[in-house]
Design a protein that fits this description.
Length: 141
């Protein structure tokens, strides 16, 4: 029998981690999140950050972005969307697509409704003025 994740309280550490994931305009790795959290909570350990990211993801307060061969990234925007991963820069871009548009693109009569999706597209991106800031993890929402 599958159990739903039990609701746990939002500790100060967990709230700080959640706030950092929400404030970034890139999709940070656990290591990048740890470095940002460490500035606010100097005594926090990397293991605590990893465990709390797992709890937040299990509670569906953030979502994991699993890219083959890359560290897991995290996103606070929970709505369904697709991601474009630039192979040259390692950047991840949000692609705005809704389930109805996706359904029409798939072009399969057997689909009635799409409830959830997670799509990764890979390629190369054009140069962007904010790219340097993204790579350094400095841009905030």
């Amino acid at each position: 029998m599958n159990k739903l994740p039990q609701k746990t309280r939002l500790t100060q550490q967990r709230k700080t981690i959640l706030d950092i994931v929400k404030s970034t305009c890139y999709h940070p790795t656990a290591e990048q999140i740890f470095k940002l959290v460490k500035k606010q909570l100097p005594k926090i350990s990397v293991g605590t950050v990893y465990r709390n990211l797992d709890v937040l993801a299990d509670q569906k307060l953030i979502k994991r972005i699993d890219i083959p061969g890359e560290p897991t990234r995290f996103d606070a925007e929970l709505k369904n969307k697709a991601y474009f991963v630039c192979k040259n820069k390692g950047s991840i871009y949000d692609l705005k697509i809704d389930s109805e548009k996706l359904k029409s693109l798939v072009n399969c009569d057997c689909i009635d409704k799409i409830d959830d999706f997670h799509i990764l597209l890979f390629g190369t991106s054009k140069d962007c003025p904010s790219e340097k800031g993204l790579r350094k993890g400095q841009l905030k929402r």
